[in-house]
């Protein structure tokens, strides 16, 4: 078996249509990834084998204003392992091969578990605890510290993961803890792509838009050269565009949807109505743009708004407005309320009647 410099924890359809696809396109013919299934779910064994055989991602949506529907074959995965039975081999790969450790372990992946206090590696441990024990093998082998690249949707995900790993490592040797804190490269990143459905036994359907934004820092490098992979000096600029354009737009559409009697069902149906689309464009231009102008953050804003409108209009995506409406009050505060506060704090005095009406639950 060839050496694989990238060890990936998680077999999700998101990773299949995101990082694994980028690596396949950027490094054809190399198969640099070993994938580890951490859940132990026997129903996923078939998927694990299929990943190593290669699979397809169907990209469907609107790109540069044009409808696209294309299939891409992904051949970046060399082998698939299951954590419990393959624990010794996974430990060896961490000790000898891995230069990058990539993860997407779902919402529960970072949550501590009772087993985390155990003295030895246990398949029942949380991902941070597993990592604390696995990286010890690398340290004891005298290998160069790897780059840890979580893609979980947690703000400052690399910093958060580092803290969780160090917490577990408090029961370990001080020299090892220093190595974890000072030598290992913990990378913050932001990822974005809607992966709407799985294919069987492996593969997925995804929208054209994709982003893997990696925060620059000492020793940080992108795992591949790909248009969707960006190393940036400040993730905050990207986070604000996502929160205050994409997420804000979704939440404003929900407010309109509630006012209009909970119709239509899907975001794409809203965008098929010229009047509703014009209203959203007007919101972005007249109420959102001035906030970014006041903050001096208009670089790339027009392109991002255009891409966002294309994403909302994706005719292949059944994105239910009722799903976006869950926890609507909290989303109003975090997306629209936070934007208005942020814009005002930066000197934006322009009127924002539609956003303020949404916050009050009034007719926009």
TrEMBL record:
Where is the Mannitol dehydrogenase C-terminal domain positioned along the sequence? 239-343
| One Pfam family of this chain | Mannitol_dh
Question: Mannitol dehydrogenase N-terminal domain location, by residue?
Answer: 6-216
Which GO MF terms are attached to this record?
oxidoreductase activity
Q: Which InterPro entries match?
A: 6-PGluconate_DH-like_C_sf, 6PGD_dom2, Mannitol_DH_C, Mannitol_DH_N, NAD(P)-bd_dom_sf
Q: Does the keyword NAD apply?
A: yes
Alphabetically sorted, this entry's keywords are: NAD, Oxidoreductase
**Stretch forming the signal peptide:** none
Decide whether keyword Oxidoreductase is in the record: yes
The lineage's top-level taxon is Bacteria
Protein name as catalogued: Tagaturonate reductase
Instruction: State the species of origin.
Output: Allosediminivita pacifica
Taxonomic classification:
Bacteria, Pseudomonadati, Pseudomonadota, Alphaproteobacteria, Rhodobacterales
């Amino acid at each position: 078996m060839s050496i694989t410099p990238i060890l990936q924890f998680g077999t999700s359809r998101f990773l299949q249509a995101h990082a694994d696809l980028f690596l396949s396109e950027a490094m054809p013919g190399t198969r640099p990834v070993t994938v580890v299934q951490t859940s132990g779910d026997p129903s996923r064994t078939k998927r694990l084998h299929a990943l190593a055989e290669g699979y397809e991602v169907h990209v469907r949506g609107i790109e540069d204003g044009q409808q696209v529907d294309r299939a891409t074959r992904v051949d970046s995965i060399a082998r698939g392992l299951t954590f419990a039975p393959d624990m010794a081999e996974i430990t060896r790969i961490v000790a000898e091969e891995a230069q990058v450790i990539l993860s997407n372990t779902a919402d529960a992946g970072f949550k501590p578990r009772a087993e985390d206090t155990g003295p030895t590696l246990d398949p029942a441990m949380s991902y941070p605890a597993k990592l604390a024990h696995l990286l010890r093998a690398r340290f004891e082998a005298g290998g160069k510290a790897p780059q840890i690249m979580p893609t979980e949707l947690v703000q400052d995900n690399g910093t958060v993961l580092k803290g969780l790993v160090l917490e577990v490592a408090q029961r370990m040797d001080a020299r090892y803890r220093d190595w974890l804190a000072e030598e290992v490269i913990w990378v913050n990143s932001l990822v974005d792509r809607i992966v709407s459905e799985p294919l069987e036994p492996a593969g997925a359907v995804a929208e054209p838009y994709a982003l893997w934004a990696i925060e620059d820092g000492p020793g940080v490098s992108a795992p591949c050269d790909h248009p969707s992979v960006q190393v940036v000096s400040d993730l905050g600029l990207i986070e604000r565009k996502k929160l205050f354009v994409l997420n804000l737009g979704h939440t404003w559409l929900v407010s309109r949807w509630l006012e209009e009697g909970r119709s239509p069902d899907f975001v794409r149906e809203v965008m098929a109505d010229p009047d509703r689309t014009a209203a959203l464009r007007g919101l972005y231009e007249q109420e959102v743009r001035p906030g970014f102008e006041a903050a001096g953050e208009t670089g790339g804003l027009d392109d991002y708004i255009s891409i966002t409108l294309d994403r909302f209009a994706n005719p292949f995506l059944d994105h239910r407005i009722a799903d976006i409406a869950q926890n609507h009050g909290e989303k109003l505060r975090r997306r629209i309320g936070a934007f208005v506060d942020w814009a005002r704090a930066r000197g934006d005095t322009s009127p924002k009647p539609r956003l303020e009406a949404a916050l009050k639950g009034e007719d926009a």
